[in-house]
Amino acid sequence: MSYRVAIIEFINESNTFTLKRTGIGDFHASHYFKGEEIPDNFAGTGSEVGGAIEIAKAKGWTPVYIVAAHAEPNGIIREEARAEITQECLRRLRESGPFDGIFVALHGAMVTETDEDGDCQFLRAIRSVVGDEVPVAITLDLHANVFDELAGLAQISVSFRTYPHVDMREVGLRAGELLHETMAGAIAPKLAIRRPPMLLGCDDGRTTDNGPMCRLLESADAEAAAPGILNVSINAGFTDADVHAAGPSVVVTYDSAVAMAEAADAVGERLCDAIWSYRNEWAQPVPLSECIAALKDADPQDGIVVVADFSDNPGSGAYSDCTALIAAMLEAGLADAAAGALLDPDAAAEIAAAGLGAEVTVTIGGRTDPMVGGGPLKVTGTVMAISDGRFVFEGPMFTGLPGTCGRSVCLRVQGLDIMIVSERMQMLDKNIFRTVGIEPTEKAILAVKSMQHFKGAFGPIAARMIVTDAGGLSSPDLESRTYTRVRRPVYPLDC
Questions:
Q1: pTM for this one?
Q2: Does residue 283 surpass a pLDDT of 90?
Q3: Dmax of the chain from CA atoms?
Q4: Cα(301)–Cα(92) distance, integer angstroms
Q5: What is the per-residue pLDDT across 452-464, written as a single tens digit (0 to 9) for each?
Q6: Cis peptide before 489 (omega within 30 of 0)
Q7: pLDDT band of 484, cuts 50, 70, 90
Q8: Interval 57-95: pLDDT, tens
Q9: pLDDT reported for residue 173
Q10: Cα(318)–Cα(475) distance, rounded to whole angstroms?
Q11: Rounded to whole angstroms, how far apart are CA atoms 39 and 33?
Q12: CA 96, 102, 104, 110 torsion: positive or negative?
């Protein structure tokens, strides 16, 4: 039997502390595909939807492609953008139904102007069309903030297990496999959700350093071996969103025909206790002064040093236009270095207008909030490259998907090549640098705006990696923020 399955994506990680908002243009800048545009762009890619396409072929489904909308992490989603994407999805669902199953790729930390849980808001809308009986399988980012309502809207939930997120395809495959078994009547899945009283935990989900998250995943695997436990997901949560459910969570997908709800709840409780036990183990970024001192002492003969500006990571909704790290590198006289990607459409346009080889004096960065992470920086340099900013991810994240930084330039200031872009883009792929002629393997120092994802692409070429806090919006210092919606008491705000 060929099952008719709707395949959908609506993804955004929403930072509630930024001055910005996410509009429909932000989705178009990343991707907003409809219908058959989806397999044309996602087939064979290392993404959740790529995994769904693969399982659909393997299981003989009749896939019905609805919408695939993704915007880079930013502020709360504007209502007109949410409504436009949602209504397009619902229209296509009405016209293409009925369905045997629904596959939805979500982030889990989406906030809209009308709901602090934008993911459940979207699932409610889907349910209003397809009804309550059609099984829904979802995928979530490891940094999802999971609300209790999810258990009544989806039967299957599978989260990323890696940070950097290099298992997107595999997560799509697993969710699709469970959905297929559900449609075939082999399992009757339900969800159990538990949260420890924590805003911060799981070492933010890092899996590259064999730390707490790795131990937690081992425990989750052991729990998943019990009869009727189909999948156990541990989410580190997203602290840049002030919402009730912000923080770590455990989501258990269990077969209600085999396991009791109480057994699934007990799995969640045990893992929450384990998460709590690691609450004081957290890899903190080093101060900027310490970072610069290390760079000055580094010997280029020892290999490439990669520096990550943790606090200005666009991947967590930070502004990506902070200049503190770049200014410090210039002041230190560091040579054979590159930094990116600094968001400044106005500066990119001014530099591009000057033309290749021109020497320009221009003010860059610090435009969104000059009080955060360094204000506007006046520099004089040579225009080394001008680009439309288009590229294809080479992996290991988003492998094969297209991306764009908008109009982009490389400005060489002293010994530092600065990549300036018009669209926000976390530096998690070497091809991003290459859009403006910077070959990352040939530099002594690479400064990237990222927290952890950079390690997937740049870790293999780095002799040393330094993560620093340069005072951007996503600094891990939670005391600098005012939370009003998160449940209380909660660690570490009340402990």
A1: 0.93
A2: no
A3: 71
A4: 58
A5: 999 999 999 999 9
A6: yes
A7: very high
A8: 999 999 999 999 999 999 999 999 999 999 999 999 999
A9: 98
A10: 9
A11: 9
A12: positive
Q: Is the pLDDT of residue 1 over 90?
A: no
Residue 256 burial by Cβ neighbours in a 10 Å radius (0-12, 13-18, 19+): middle
Classify the phi-psi angles of 23: left when phi > 0, otherwise alpha if psi is within -120 to 50, otherwise beta. Answer: beta
How many whole angstroms separate alpha carbon 253 and alpha carbon 100? 19
Q: What is the pLDDT of residue 284?
A: 87
Q: What is the mean pLDDT of the chain?
A: 96
Q: Which of 183, 424, 465 is nearest to 304 (CA)?
A: 465
> pLDDT value at position 442?
97
Q: At what angle do helices 261-277 and 212-224 cross, to 10 degrees?
A: 160
pLDDT in tens, 18-30: 999 999 999 999 9
Q: 28 near 84, Cβ under 8 Å?
A: no
Residue type, 52: A
The Cβ of residue 375 has, within 10 Å, a number of other Cβ atoms equal to 17
Apex 215 CA angle, 313 and 204, nearest 5 = 15
φ, ψ at 358 (rounded to 5°): -75, 150
Letter string b/e over residues 383-398, b meaning 16 or more CB atoms within 10 A of that residue's CB? bbbbbebebebebbbb
Tokens found for residue 315: 């991947």
- Identify whether the C-beta of residue 299 lies closer than 8 Å to the C-beta of residue 291: no
Q: Any bridge partners for residue 115, and if so which?
A: 112
